[in-house]
Amino acid sequence: MKKYEDDEIVMEIRKFRSEHARALGFDVDRIFEGLKKRQKANRAKKVSFASKGRKPMPLGKNT
Protein backbone atom coordinates (compact mmCIF):
# COMPACT_ATOMS: atom_id res chain seq x y z
CA MET A 1 0.00 0.00 0.00
CA LYS A 2 1.32 3.41 -0.97
CA LYS A 3 1.87 5.87 1.87
CA TYR A 4 0.81 9.48 1.42
CA GLU A 5 4.45 10.53 1.92
CA ASP A 6 5.25 8.73 -1.34
CA ASP A 7 2.30 10.12 -3.30
CA GLU A 8 3.38 12.24 -6.27
CA ILE A 9 0.52 14.72 -5.88
CA VAL A 10 1.23 15.23 -2.17
CA MET A 11 4.92 15.75 -2.94
CA GLU A 12 4.08 18.28 -5.69
CA ILE A 13 1.81 20.24 -3.35
CA ARG A 14 4.42 20.25 -0.60
CA LYS A 15 7.07 21.44 -3.05
CA PHE A 16 4.85 24.32 -4.23
CA ARG A 17 3.95 25.26 -0.66
CA SER A 18 7.60 25.26 0.39
CA GLU A 19 8.74 27.33 -2.62
CA HIS A 20 5.86 29.77 -2.13
CA ALA A 21 6.66 30.24 1.56
CA ARG A 22 10.36 30.68 0.83
CA ALA A 23 9.62 33.32 -1.85
CA LEU A 24 7.65 35.30 0.74
CA GLY A 25 10.26 34.98 3.46
CA PHE A 26 8.13 32.51 5.46
CA ASP A 27 6.00 35.50 6.53
CA VAL A 28 2.57 34.04 7.34
CA ASP A 29 0.78 37.36 6.80
CA ARG A 30 2.31 37.79 3.33
CA ILE A 31 1.52 34.17 2.44
CA PHE A 32 -2.11 34.57 3.54
CA GLU A 33 -2.57 37.88 1.70
CA GLY A 34 -1.04 36.41 -1.46
CA LEU A 35 -3.34 33.41 -1.36
CA LYS A 36 -6.38 35.64 -0.79
CA LYS A 37 -5.44 37.77 -3.82
CA ARG A 38 -4.93 34.67 -5.93
CA GLN A 39 -8.31 33.28 -4.87
CA LYS A 40 -10.04 36.60 -5.60
CA ALA A 41 -8.48 36.76 -9.07
CA ASN A 42 -9.64 33.23 -9.88
CA ARG A 43 -12.92 33.48 -11.77
CA ALA A 44 -13.76 29.77 -11.51
CA LYS A 45 -17.11 28.96 -9.97
CA LYS A 46 -16.78 28.24 -6.27
CA VAL A 47 -18.77 25.97 -4.01
CA SER A 48 -20.84 27.75 -1.39
CA PHE A 49 -21.98 26.17 1.83
CA ALA A 50 -24.31 29.05 2.63
CA SER A 51 -27.46 28.33 4.60
CA LYS A 52 -30.45 27.27 2.54
CA GLY A 53 -32.93 28.64 5.05
CA ARG A 54 -33.06 25.50 7.16
CA LYS A 55 -32.99 25.88 10.91
CA PRO A 56 -30.20 24.00 12.67
CA MET A 57 -31.23 20.99 14.73
CA PRO A 58 -31.01 21.62 18.49
CA LEU A 59 -27.99 19.99 20.09
CA GLY A 60 -28.61 16.76 21.96
CA LYS A 61 -31.63 15.69 19.92
CA ASN A 62 -31.55 12.79 17.49
CA THR A 63 -34.97 13.36 15.95
Stretches where pLDDT is under 50 for at least 5 consecutive residues are none
**What is the approximate shape?**
extended
N/C terminus separation = 41 Å
Q: What's the total number of strands? A: 0
Beta-strand percentage range: under 5%
Order of helices and strands: HH
Radius of gyration: 19 Å
| Average pLDDT number | 84
Largest sheet: none
Total of DSSP H or I helical runs spanning 4+ residues: 2
Helical amount among residues, as a percent range? 40-55%
The secondary structure category is mainly alpha
What does the model show?
The protein is mainly α. It has a domain at 4-41. 48% of the residues lie in helices and 0% in strands. It has 2 helices and no strands. The longest helix is centred in the first third of the chain and has 16 residues, at 8-23. The termini are far apart. The mean pLDDT is 84.
Task: Kindly list the characteristics that best describe this protein.
63 residues; 48% helix; extended
Would you kindly provide a brief summary of this structure?
The protein is mostly helical and 63 residues long. The protein contains 2 helices and no strands.
List the helices and strands and how they pair.
Blueprint: H1 8-23, H2 28-41
